[in-house]
């Protein structure tokens, strides 16, 4: 019972940290303004590594619900849903592979590479069919308006397809790499303490 309480408390803490990290975003050159690098998946990754993939998904869900309820930026939760899908894909694929393989530095990076690739592919497809059209709708714009806006950052973006290939896909690959690099030393430092070793 005590273990469950401690686990719940720790996951709540990770969710809160993840929520706060959603406000830390860095724009990248050559990418549309709505794509900013953040590191809010790191708490979910740590939770998933320690307690399993579902724990990571729970952290992703709670942080996005908090963000939607407390910021209410008028996007009708499109941004939060997109963040949840991206983060959950990254966390679940990364940790499932890491758990299937023997714990090692190499296998950590194999898991992160798989999770990053999966996130990039899923978000490329999801943005093409769902998120960018939904984003345009809630802003009262057309998809072509979003494309034109994005073209200001990268002249190669001339269509929705070009937007997901030249912006969404590389953006998620870069995001996954940055979060993996930051997570590795944090996880190595916290693991002995959190596992009671």
UniProtKB/TrEMBL annotation:
Keyword Cell membrane among UniProt keywords: yes
Protein name: Riboflavin transporter
Domain of life of the native organism: Bacteria
Organism: Aneurinibacillus danicus
Cell compartment(s), UniProt: Cell membrane
GO MF annotations, alphabetized: riboflavin transmembrane transporter activity
Family: Belongs to the prokaryotic riboflavin transporter (P-RFT) (TC 2.A.87) family.
Stretches that traverse the bilayer: 9-30, 42-62, 74-98, 118-139, 160-187
GO cellular component term of the entry, any: plasma membrane
Keyword Membrane listed: yes
Functional summary from the UniProt entry: Probably a riboflavin-binding protein that interacts with the energy-coupling factor (ECF) ABC-transporter complex.
Bilayer topology annotation: Multi-pass membrane protein
PANTHER family recorded: RIBOFLAVIN TRANSPORTER RIBU
Alphabetic keyword roster: Cell membrane, Membrane, Transmembrane, Transmembrane helix, Transport
